[in-house]
Structure formats: structure tokens, C-alpha cells
Design brief:
Strand order of the largest sheet: 3-2-1-4-5-9-8
Protein name: NNMT/PNMT/TEMT family protein
Radius of gyration: 17 Å
Number of domains: 1
CATH architecture: 3-Layer(aba) Sandwich
Structural class: alpha/beta
Organism: Kitasatospora paracochleata
Keywords: Methyltransferase, S-adenosyl-L-methionine, Transferase
Order of helices and strands: HHEHEHHHEEHEEEHEE
Length: 259
């Protein structure tokens, strides 16, 4: 059944999302842009969590989809990682994948282990992820399962679920409010995305730039927030109509201010 392009989050056919096609297109091998992002997130977490005991934190990845590398980046420090996802197909994919993740993720893990601290101390990351992962289905606009998370990620979600800036801002706000004080976070965005196709279906995106990212995070991020821009690589584009990737690295500060 054909679908007209969605504009708001509620209009998109999330439960028909082709998880296998999306995973194969985006994560079957490690791209240079994802390598840059993963290395930056690794270094941010290593610096922010240098004195933190292994396996002591609660982490959350919001909108996990078919991407395990945010969870792998949090893995050494977490006793539990909630992989929160709306799409029924993505939830099924995640529950199957975390039992013993595929060989393609080994090169992602290898990037994390390029630094000698912490990551190489995880002897069996597959078994570790299987033991700590908690895949939960839900709509982030209805809230996340719990608050006070010690560590958090949200990759290519807030700008990739709607064309409406209000919904983009709400998605970031929901993520921020779920983190506990001082919690390190990493949030990634597609810059100037115009939407994307998965299989034969179209999904919405909100056109944003670094100014929008800073504004959406400023209300709850502690001083020191960094936003890094990742250039479009020479490899084939992941989707039409984007100009790069944006990676925000910081810590949770106080409550979001309101007018």
C-alpha cells in the first residue's frame, strides 16, 4: 500500500519500517563519518567517566533503531542499558540482535578499543551487551521509561521523526529531562535533512543546523557543551538532501528553563 510523505511524527508508518533494509544500508560496514562520531563519543565518555566504576550506571539510548554503536559506546560503565524504540519491527530486530550481535559490529567495537582505557577491559562485549540490554517499546512523546539515567545517547532521532521544529525540540527535551544531574550524553543529528526513504516508504525529517542543536540543548546542558560537525564523506550518501552530521557532547546540567 503506498503512503504519501509524512510530515508529523504521528503520520509516519513506523510499524512498517524495514529494519533489515535500514541496517544493511547504514550499518553493514563502518563508514568514515560513523568512525569519526564513534571516536569522539568514546573520548568524551572516557574523559567524563574516568573515575566511574565499571558496570555501575544506568544508560539509555533513545530511538535505538537498528544502530548498536551508541550502546556499545556506553557498555563498559553500565549495569543496564535501556534501548528505547517505537517501531515494532525495530524492537523485534533489537531483541534478536542483542542476544548475540552480528559480526559487522566488531569493527565498530575495534574503534572504541583504539584507546587503551576501559573498553579493552570488556572481555566479551557480546555477552556483556546481552546481559545488560533492556529493549523497551514506546513513543518518546508519551515519555521515557524512568528518569535519572546516568548516561545517555540519542542518534539521528529528534530530527528524523518529523518536519515540525516543535516536535524536534520536544524530542530533545524529553531526552534531556530523562538524564540525571551531571550525566554525560552524546546526541547526533543529520544536518539539513529533507527526509529519507526506507524500502518503498518515505519518512519525515526536520531541517536543522548547529544553531538549532545548541538552542535545543542549551536549556539543560551544563556549561562546556560541544557541537562538532562531520562533513559528508566521499562515500555514497546515506540519504538525499543532507549536508553533514552534527554531534553534541556534554553533561546534563540543571532543569530546562521556560519563558
Amino acid at each position: 500500500m503506498p503512503f504519501s510523505p509524512a510530515r508529523t511524527n504521528s503520520e509516519a508508518p513506523w510499524d512498517l519500517f524495514d529494519s533489515v533494509a535500514y541496517h544493511n544500508h547504514n550499518y553493514s560496514s563502518l563508514r568514515s563519518d560513523d568512525r569519526q562520531i564513534l571516536a569522539a563519543v568514546r573520548d568524551h565518555f572516557l574523559a567524563a567517566l574516568a573515575s566511574t566504576d565499571p558496570a555501575s550506571l544506568r544508560g539509555i539510548d533513545v530511538g535505538a533503531g537498528t544502530n548498536l554503536y551508541p550502546s556499545l559506546a556506553m557498555l563498559p560503565w553500565c549495569r543496564e542499558i535501556t534501548l528505547f524504540e517505537r517501531s515494532e519491527r525495530n524492537v523485534a530486530w533489537l531483541r534478536n540482535e542483542v542476544v548475540r550481535y552480528g559480526d559487522n559490529w566488531d569493527e565498530f567495537w575495534a574503534v572504541l578499543c583504539e584507546r587503551e582505557e576501559t573498553y579493552p577491559e570488556v572481555a566479551d562485549p557480546r555477552a556483556r551487551l546481552a546481559g545488560v540490554a533492556d529493549v523497551r517499546q514506546g513513543d518518546l512523546f508519551d515519555g521515557l521509561p524512568g528518569t535519572g539515567y546516568d548516561l545517555g545517547t540519542m542518534f539521528f532521532v529528534a530530527e528524523s521523526l518529523t518536519t515540525a521544529h516543535e516536535e524536534f525540540e520536544t524530542a530533545v527535551d524529553v531526552f534531556g529531562r530523562a538524564l540525571g544531574p551531571g550525566a554525560p550524553f552524546a546526541v547526533a543529528f543529520m544536518e539539513n535533512s529533507l527526509g529519507y526513504e526506507v524500502g518503498e516508504l518515505s519518512f519525515p525529517a526536520c531541517r536543522i543546523d548547529s544553531t538549532d542543536v545548541v538552542a535545543s540543548l542549551a536549556g539543560y546542558a551544563a556549561p562546556g557543551l560541544r557541537v562538532e560537525r562531520i562533513e559528508v564523506p566521499g562515500e555514497p550518501l546515506l540519504r538525499e538532501g543532507y549536508t553533514g552530521m552534527l554531534l553534541a557532547l556534554g553533561r546534563r546540567g540543571g532543569e530546562r528553563t521556560t519563558d
